[in-house]
Amino acid sequence: MAALALADSGDAVRAALDELSRNFTYGAQGGGNGSLSGAWYRRNQIHLFGVLLAILGNLVISVSLNIQKYSHLRLAHQEPPRPFFRSPVWWGGAVLMAVGETGNFAAYGFAPITLVAPLGCMSVTGSVFISVMFLKENLRASDLLGMTLAFAGSYLLVNFAPNITQAISARTIQCYFVGWQFLIYVIFEILIFCILLYFHKRKGMNHIVILLTLVALLASLTVISVKAVSGMITFSVMDKMQLTYPIFYIMFIIMIASCVFQVKFLNQATKLYNTAAVVPVSHVLFTTSAIIAGIIFYKEFFGAAFLTIFIYFFGCFLSFLGVFLVTRNREKEHLPQSYIDFGNIPGKQMLDKVQPDSNGLPYGTLPDGSDSTKSQSGEKKEV
Q1: Cα separation of 237 and 234, whole Å?
Q2: What gap in Å lies between CA 236 and CA 243, rounded to an integer?
Q3: Tally of CB atoms within 10 A around 253
C-alpha cells in the first residue's frame, strides 16, 4: 500500500511539472501552450485581446492622471487662480480617463475577471514612469524595483490565469445568478458590509481598512455586473441579441449603483488619508475581491491544476509588492515647507545672511506659540 501511495504521489508531481513545462514552452512544435507557442496563441486569442484592451486602458488612465496633475500644477501658479474645470488641459485628461475606463470595461467581455482585474497595477506603475519622464519627478530605486516586480507579476498572471472561454449569454448569467454558491457569497458579503457600515456610521470609525474594505465589497459586485453587461453586449454583436433579457438591465443597475457608492467611500478615504496610503491598500483589496468574485460567480478556476493556481497567486503577490514599493513615501517627497522671505517684509531689511540653528525651527517657519521667533544669528534693524 505504501508503494502504491508513493507511486500515486509521484504521478501527481510529474503531472504538475508537465503542466508547468507546458506553460513555459516557447515556440515548440506540437502541443505546447507556452506564451510564444502557436498553440497557446490559437487557444488564447480572445483572452489576449482582452489583456491588450486592459493594458492599453490602464496606460491611457496613467496618461490622463498625469495630464490632470499637470493641469493642477499650472493652475496653482496662475494669478488669479482659476477653477480646474475651466482648464482645457484638465478636460483633455478627463476625456482620456473615460477612454481608458471604456477599454477596461470592454476587456471584461473578452477575458476572465481573474486576468483583467490584477492588471490594474499597470496603471500605477505606468503613472510613475510617465511622471518621471514628463513631469520631471525623481526616479527612486524603489520605483525601479517596484515596476520590475509588477511587470514580472503581470507576466505570470497572463501565463497562468484561468484558461477558460465561456460565452456570456443572458441565460448563462441567469443560471449563475441563482446558483447556491453565489447566493451564499452575497449573503456573507452583505453581513460583512452591514457590520463595517455600522462601525463606520454609528461608532465613527474611519480607519482606512474599513473604508477601503467597503469599497472592495462593492467592487466585487461591480466586476461581476461589468463582465455580465460587457459580455452580453459582446455576445449580441458577435452572435445573438441579448439586450432584450431583463437580466441585462438588472446587471446594468447593479453596476451603476455599486460604482456610485464605491466613489462615495473612496472619496472619504482620500480626504482622510494621503494617496500613498490609499492606492496600494485599495489595489490589494479591490483585486482580491474581484478574484474571489470571478472564482465564485463565473467559476474561473474550475478544473485548474494546483501548481497553476499557486503560480497565479504568486504573480498577484509580486504585483501587489510592486505597487506598494512604487507608492511608498511618494507623497512625502512633495510636501512643501512653509517659510517667510524676510526680504519681502515692508519696513524690514536683511543686513546679514542668517543661518538657522540645526537644533531649532527651520528659518522662517511659524511657531505654534504666541511669542515671536527669536533671531538665531545676525542682526535685523528697521530702515
Answers
A1: 5
A2: 7
A3: 11
For 259, the grid coordinates are 460604482
Position with higher pLDDT, 217 vs 373:
217
Asked whether 300 and 113 are in contact (CB, 8 A), the reply is: yes
DSSP designation for 242: -
Q: Which residue has the cell 466586476?
A: 223
- 8: cell is 500515486
User: The C-alpha cell of 140 is what?
Assistant: 527612486
Compute CA distances 299 → 4, 294, 383, whole Å: 33, 6, 81
Q: Is the pTM of this model over 0.85?
A: no
CA 165 to chain centre: 25
Cell of 173: 448569467
Query: What is the length of the chain?
Result: 383
The DSSP letter of residue 85 is: G
Cell of 214: 467597503
Dist. CA 370–CA 11, nearest whole Å: 79
Q: How many other CB atoms are there within 10 angstroms of residue 372's CB atom? A: 7
Asked whether the CA dihedral 38, 39, 43, 47 is positive or negative, the reply is negative
DSSP H or E segment with residue 380 = strand 380-382
The tens digit of pLDDT for each residue in 363-383 reads: 444 444 444 444 444 444 444
Distance from C-alpha of 197 to C-alpha of 210, rounded to nearest angstrom: 8
d(CA 259, CA 48): 26
Contact yes or no for 298/176 (Cβ under 8 A): yes
> Helix 208-238 vs helix 170-177: angle between axes, to the nearest 10 degrees?
150
Whole-angstrom distance, CA of residue 296 vs CA of residue 116: 16
pLDDT digits (tens, 9 = 90+) for 47-57: 788 888 888 98
Alpha helices in 38-112 (DSSP H): 38-43, 45-76, 88-107
Give the whole-angstrom CA distance, residue 250 versus residue 245: 9
